[in-house]
Amino acid sequence: MANNIKRPKFNFTWFYLVVGGILLFFYLFGDESNNRVIEKEYSELTEYIKKGYVEDITVYDTDEIEAFIYKDSAKYVFTDTPLEANSRPMVVSTLGSRDNFEKFIFEQREKRGDAEPNFKGKLRYQKKPDYLGGLFWNFMPLIVIVAIWIFIMRKMSGGGGAQGGVFNVGKSQAKLFDKTNTPTITFKDVAGQEGAKQEVKEIVDFLKSPKKYTELGGKIPKGALLVGPPGTGKTLLAKAVAGEANVPFFSMSGSDFVEMFVGVGASRVRDLFRQAKEKAPCIIFIDEIDAVGRARGKNPSMGGNDERENTLNQLLTEMDGFGTNSGIIVIAATNRADILDKALLRAGRFDRQIHVDLPDLNERKEVFGVHLRPLKLDPSVDIDILARQTPGFSGADIANVCNEAALIAARNNKKAVDKQDFLDAIDRIIGGLEKKTKVMTQKEKETIAIHEAGHATISWFLEHANPLIKVTIVPRGRALGAAWYMPEERQITTKEQMLDEMCATLGGRAAEETFIGHISTGAMNDLERVTKQSYAMIAYAGMSDKLSNLCYYNNNEYSFNRPYSEKTAETIDKEVHSMITEQYERAKALLREHKEGHAELAKILMEREVIFAEDVEKIFGKRPWASRSEEIFGSNSDNEEKAADSTAATETAETEEHA
Questions:
Q1: 288 in the Ramachandran plot: left (φ > 0), alpha (ψ -120 to 50) or beta?
Q2: Annotated catalytic residue: which of 452, 651, 654, 657?
Q3: Cα-based distances in Å from 50 to 40, 45, 53, 151
Q4: Which helix H or strand E contains 209, and what residues bound it?
Q5: Tens of pLDDT along 488-512?
Q6: Which residue pairs, CB below 8 angstroms and at least 24 apart, start in 107-116?
Q7: β-strand pairing of 175-177 with 249-253
Q8: What is this structure's pTM?
Q9: Could you please report the per-residue DSSP string of 298-315?
Q10: Lowest-confidence range among 44-48, 446-450, 565-569?
Q11: Does 452 qualify as catalytic in the annotation?
């Protein structure tokens, strides 16, 4: 028991303060420590001078008088207590008139017959010493220099406080979560991502009951890497692990290892794992590990950043080197797994790569369920409809939709958030802020209406084009108009589907040339999307007649050489131009075939600024591919099984941006 008693640690700070106080005392009062001082009235002091007791007199500018007494005469002055042998007696008084005092001293220095003068000593005039002022001017420059040095060191070492000191610059910056400050987030707060949660739950279960696995000969995984797009919940999943596991949890970012001092990153890695070994079993979470785990020899400075590579080498050694890390699990998160070093990804370091993908239809319903809890909802809000209208949205995007809907409802002084608020929020996030006050001429408005009507017309008559929801010519964000579609959530996409989408995207530019006779900059975003898509089809997907079944994708991030020759590059350019031209002519042919309906659609769009799919259906009739679309996408009245189909598409909007 005696060994477990926590003794207070010796702190050198108090030692330095005591020594400094002693030195200061001797500096201020050391010269007067042997003086025996007594304070007397001015009249008594003059009597001592007349009797010849005074040896020397000092007059200060503050009219204070110090008179030293002869030791032989001290017994007549200090009558109350005996005088020590080594002390020097002194009388202190206050001067009345300086002129009178000088005249008095002059008289006492004169001889009176054979008698000696009463005062034979020296009369000095001095300035009263300012001990505090002298101390200030002597030590203040040094104090200022030390303070500036400490401030600079703290800034360079990543902040103030105990962990920001210059002597702690090599210490780990990880934040420790234990039983006293465990996060309140649990797996119940992480909606969707059932596969990723199952993988992480197994790690937590292993820490709670390791015998369940070790009895069968299994070993605890040393690391798990969470990989996925931004906003999918990788960090949230790690927080849930901290809330669920009853073990210490170290959390830090990959950038916390990176420092301007040489060797600091490796030192912090060593200190982190040293602390983790003391707390084992425990979990270490490193967020955005690509900041330190980038593949060696592929940095932009062409190998100049050796400090980062040294930090990575130390991390590799600590995760799986000669040392033992039993009971330590490393969980890391990144959205750029392709640039990580291969040595970091091998089995034995990160045994598992857990993919945290964008949520599908079912998972979006669960995410909406989590973020809708704190909102006051109107009965018109249907989670199923909201999930269908947000394909491709991450968990962070859905949280933004819910928050934006609440703000819109509050802006309109509503008591609850209704369905229209959510629709406006989705439009706001995808397309940007609506700008009804933007000044446009009538000619510009007509051009935009013809352009957007071209998109709507082409998409209506193409089999694989995304079904239309609405078309608007109200400026929103950087776009002067937009066509909103209901894209299908596909796992794979065929060449025919991509060509139809390309043709529909070119419908706006084709309508301008066909019905106005000239083209504008309004199709800049359309052309950018089509060009990127066609290059991806030909160079990566092998969807070209001349370059069939070839993929020129290069994963080397900092490679300055293309993986194909100049002749092949020329062939790719020709194939891209041919593909886009073919779809452009196809769009113009469709528009000429349905020019009356297009003109009527553009006229209605000019009058109402917004038209919906039912308005297009009144003009062109029922969509030729409507039955197939219903079969794929379903409707709002479908049962739960049909709504949960992972291949079902959702109602959303793709904006067509214009310069």
A1: left
A2: 452
A3: 15, 9, 8, 62
A4: none
A5: 777 788 999 999 999 999 999 999 9
A6: 108/49, 108/50, 116/52
A7: antiparallel
A8: 0.62
A9: -STTTT--HHHHHHHHHH
A10: 44-48
A11: yes
